[in-house]
Amino acid sequence: MGDAPCNHFPAFVEICHICNFSYVTQLFILFFSWYHYYKKGEFALFKLICRDCLSTASTISMNELYTANIALSVFAMAIMLFSLRGDISQSKIRNLLCGGLYATIAICALCEWSGVQMDGTPPALIPLHIAVKTIELSLAPLIGLFAGCVIHPCPRKVVHRLLCLAGFHALLVLLSAFTGLIFYVDGQNFYHHGLLYVLYMLAYGGSMVFFLVQIWFACRAYQYTGGTQLMLATLFVLLGLMVQLFLPMVKIDWITISCGALMMSKFSSDMVLQTDGLTQLVNRLGYEHYLARLRVPATILMFDVDRFKDVNDCHGHLMGDACLRTIAGCIRRAYGNYGTCFRIGGDEFCVILTRRNAQYNTMTEIFQHLMDAARAENPVLPMVSVGCSHFNPSTDDLADSLARADARMYQNKEAHR
Cβ atoms within 10 A of the Cβ of 353, count? Predict the structure, then answer.
């Protein structure tokens, strides 16, 4: 009786193979094969069953793998849409743009999957097939536009022009449903590219170029040091699309785009978290992280606004905020091309210059000229004291260099009184 399971096990394996059971069943087979054969020393029979199970598992169709990819992509986008509920870390407009991006990816992925499933089905489904392809090809170029506007705000005029171009492209796709210019579905219900399919490729490629340009603007505007990672994430998406282009049977475009959207969301959140909302300089958190990674020689400049409390008390906090924005803008214009600018306190700023050709004396003169010009327009704008020190990681302690810059700044502050 103890050998009965061993005698009947091969028949059980054959039934599983005939019924084309799932991978879970295959694992079940392998486990009991090991238990009944391998532990009894029947290694040859165990190897035969392993090879048979693996060969059956490898017969999974590309369509099943594609369906799994689409399901995971849509599920990931649904999670991201749900995460936007109650998200107060971003503005309402930014959340709407993120929602548009995630929803567009999910809709396009489902439409492409539906079109693939309808290829070769009865002709009665041709109108539905045309409809889903029209939706997919009309919406796909919006992905780059949404992503670009999420990563960095775009001027309203530019947005209007881009929307006009996207609307014109959508109109061409809609006309193709009747003329077959960009795509068509034949009498056997198979999808094909039209003579002007290149217009769709240009629209899609143009939206990706817009996204790359927005990455460049965002890295400059937010002084973001993760621009390389953003470019690599974009390269990841482009490689996935190229695989799809040259190997059409390997349908990985939407899982790639979904992963790209998740990476972009992470980098976008990083930029928001490290940016001071009032001045658009790097905030205290970014300052501390930057110092922790500083391993190169640098010039450190500390700034403090003189009698800033008097501005708030006499002219109100709105005027105080306006003065801080003006001062931050002058700091950014004078030093931003040669280093990173931080707001480290209420009325305290810091600049760390790491470029070797940074002439901080010249830049400080430029800063003072900018401040004088701004003060001519707004006489309330207070004076700003500056202190400087040099840091060499091989000989200096960073805390001592910061303290020296702070002490010299307070010496200049006393001279202004």
Answer: 23
Provide the residue-wise pLDDT of the chain in tens; the chain has 417 residues.
444 444 444 444 444 444 444 444 444 554 555 445 444 555 555 455 555 555 544 445 778 888 999 999 999 999 999 988 876 767 788 889 999 999 999 999 999 999 999 999 999 999 999 999 999 999 999 999 999 998 888 888 998 999 999 999 999 999 999 999 999 999 999 999 999 999 999 999 999 899 988 888 888 888 876 677 878 888 888 888 888 878 877 788 888 999 988 888 888 888 888 889 889 899 999 899 899 989 999 999 999 999 888 898 888 989 999 999 999 999 999 998 888 999 998 899 999 998 776 687 889 899 999 999 999 999 999 999 999 999 998 888 999 999 999 999 988 888 766
Helix (H) or strand (E) holding 340: strand 339-343
Q: Which of 347, 345, 363, 342 is nearest to 306 (CA)?
A: 347
With H, G, I as helix, E, B as strand and everything else as coil, classify residue 66: helix
The conformation of residue 34, written as its DSSP 8-state character, comes to I
The CA-based angle 153-159-160, given to 5 degrees, is 155
Sheet of 298-305, strand order: 339-343, 348-353, 298-305, 384-391
Is the whole-model pTM more than 0.85?
no
C-alpha pair distances (Å), 167 with each of 97, 137, 160, 176, 200:
17, 12, 10, 14, 12
Collapsing DSSP to helix, strand or coil, 163 comes out as helix
If you count them, how many residues does the chain have?
A: 417
Using alpha carbons only, give the angle 381, 382, 386 rounded to the nearest 5 degrees: 125
In this structure, which long-range contacts are made by residues 183-187, counting pairs with CB atoms below 8 Å and at least 24 apart in sequence?
183/133, 183/137, 185/126, 185/129, 185/130, 185/133, 187/123, 187/126
